[in-house]
What does this fold into?
Amino acid sequence: MSERALTLHQAMQSVGLNPLPQSFVNGQLLDGDGETIELIDPYSEERLFTYHDANASLANLACDAASSAQSHWYKDLTGAARGQVMQAIAQTVLEHSESLATIEAIVAGKPIRDCRVEVAKVAEMMAYYAGWCDKMHGDVIPVPSGHLNYTMREPVGVVFQITPWNAPLFTAGWQIAPAIATGNAVVIKPSELTPITTVALVKLAESVGLPKGLVNVLCGLGPTAGQAAIEHPAVRKVIFVGSPETGRIVATAAAAQLKPAVLELGGKSANIIYSDANLKHACLGAQAAIFSGAGQSCVAGSRLLVHASIKDELLELLANGMNRIKLGDPLDDSTEVGPISNRRQYEHVTQMISQAKDQGASIRTRQSDTDQGFFVPPTVIDGASSKADAAQKEIFGPVVTALTFETEAEAIALANDTHFGLAGAVWTADVGRAHRIANAVRAGTFWINSYKAIHVSSPFGGSLNSGFGRSSGTDALMEYTMAKSVWVDTGETPQIAFGYV
It folds into this structure.
């Protein structure tokens, strides 16, 4: 066993896992019996594990377990008691932060310093939604009929969540926390390429009081385990985080069962820089927007819209900056950018760069710091058409396409010239301009003189190919509950109306 594999196994054992990926269903670690799945370390290219797809049989067990546990969680525990359990989960996540970060760094290829931040954010998510557990109330509505009319917000029931490989632990916490805070049960299927930290999170949660079976984790494939979960009658809503292509498949499958879905999909976000901006500040923001996480972020600032008067200066600053970024081993504290998370994505990113070059674009890149792993060095594509694939399709790597504009109207038109609507930013000293552009750009999240600020208390989501619905803030509480309207006749004589419904 290699040193990296030994480090991974030790980290897994410290959070109560066996040294191989297993599903976690009704409080038990279980092996699947389906197709063999292989996990590869994106840094060393070493095979870490092989395991078997959870398949439909485990999916059905998970949904049954969730349905049984949900009634106890919502009806037998007070909101305050549920909140106390979630606070305990937050604390145990922090106590096991180094093990969770180590697993994430090796399996997903994320720099460990980023993983530590994301572990802390998962704890914050649990603590934030813990505070909402006893505050889910409705309204009293002054209807004109004389009835007492009040509303209640009730949990959906069992929700099925599908999360991606780029930030597995973060997105697990992002989805699970609001769902259980509002009284639901969860069946979650992380990417088959990065399932381990999700299992670890849920197992740790059960160790401090989360009821057995309330959250179940399926380690497996979408067409088998995922499809079976969507079809299970206990599942009442489907949540998907991932690519638009797979999102369409998931939404179609959910619609066939008459089940609603929330889709958190991709982006091709515009990062707009004006000549009056603090260029050093803007350049650092542009680097963070696209190169952090090796560009594997749905909100990545993958289109750099630069005022024509400062294009050369800004791109030179950007090139100088990206030459100082440290690429390397995700377990090294000094590493700033790790490898692409898997071979398939690595091949997609490199193919998109080659295509842009073949179409006449200028490619600015840097040498990699290592000759192993799925590394793509920070790269700038310059001179591409705004209609080229490099400017329209999600690359999902540390690759930014630079475009220029002259007028405010042109900047807004370029920003909106995609099939996405997830995020965007503007860098300018003109306050009025900043707000005009924020108002005009189609985006669910927009930053002014900043990029990638995000918090569990603020709503997040997009439109068009970026999906629909919101997955955080108080908006998520609405996604995971349904309104019930209760009418009480307060008159001396019953007020029975005919012919309304």
About this structure: Residues 55-76 form the longest helix (22 residues).
